[in-house]
Amino acid sequence: MCCIQHGTKHVVDSMTAQGHQMNTIFACGGGSQNDVFIQVHADVTGLPVVLAKEKESVLVGAAMLGACSSSHFPSLEMAMSKMSSVGRIVQPDPNTQKYYLKRHEVFLRMIEDQRCYRATMMDLV
Prior knowledge:
This protein is mainly α.
């Protein structure tokens, strides 16, 4: 399971390196209903994970788009403010930070190894 979370951290770190400021992760969908999956996301990334109050956030998002297209709301931001709310916020556990930083080093090494393997196999193409 941690590979998904380390992938998320890799994206966050890449965006941060490009000048973007990331301080929160918003999660929805099926995985967001798994407490361990979400806690590990918070722990690996070191960022709080915000979960929507509505369990079926994707459906609410579609309803927001419909409300905007029917001119019920003048903007998506207005629809979001009226139709959604925060359910809970999962904070990273500082006791796991050292462990997950080391695991992330391994994850990054695995990415580099995979690139080498791919380059080796390209000789066959």
